[in-house]
Give the backbone structure.
Amino acid sequence: MSVEKLSSSLCHGGDQQVWRHDSRATGTKMTFAAYIPEHEEGAKLPVLWFLAGLTCTHENAMVKCEYKKAANEHGVIVICPDTSPRGEGVADHEDYDFGQGAGFYVDATQQPWQPHFRMRSYIEDELPEVVAAALPVDMDRQAITGHSMGGHGALTIGLRNPGRFRSTSAFAPIISPLNCPWGEKALTGYLGDDRQDWREYDSVALIEDGARLQNVLVDQGSADEWLEGQLKTHLLQDAVRDAGLDWDIRMQDGYDHSYFFVSTFVAEHIAWHARHLKV
Ligand SMILES: N[C@@H](CCC(=O)N[C@@H](CSC=O)C(=O)NCC(=O)O)C(=O)O
């Protein structure tokens, strides 16, 4: 396994690093950011995966999300992966919501996406192995979060892997790719026309089909420009109520979709995850 540290910068007492490695899942080089809090020699720290949204690389959350102070205070490693494979030989599309930067955390089955767009396998299987080999993580103490398309990733990966994450949170997640233009466009392209195949990538469908998850926190801005047309938080509220789940879905008055919103609440999310990660 070839894993290379590209940078290391002291920040809020911890070390903000960027790593690159050859990925067997995507068949490309993949880059991720890793924030390592101060810790004693030999200590293993809990890990929070932060999945980013449309148009993002590993860098957006690292630069804009302001997680580092809280992560250092609580002793939680934060990993920010890229959102798709990239490169000259990788399929792409001119639209911001499809192709490179818009992997939707699925394993594509359709051409020309299938050879490289395998973000489910990358995030669920390969990246944890890479991180466990390179960094001082305690893989028995994992949590996951994400923003927008990354919030969809966090919820669906959490629902498909009950028991792996002590806690799951999301900022302004895409609730149901089956029921929004971003999702319909991307999943038609990556998975084909049979909408049954999309259900394992849809938080509402997963709950309807019996998936269950505890310790879930969702924050959504009431002034989010995508709330009505794309995100549709009410679909998750309905699914959670119908399934009798005790999830905390909060509407935050006046906040939009941006990292200004995410950065406002990220310290609270990290403190909440830390309580679950320490038990
Ligand atoms: N107008 C934007 C649209 C893309 C956008 O808003 N992306 C969001 C996530 S949306 C859902 O996944 C984002 O996080 N952008 C990166 C950032 O640093 O803000 C555009 O054309 O870029």
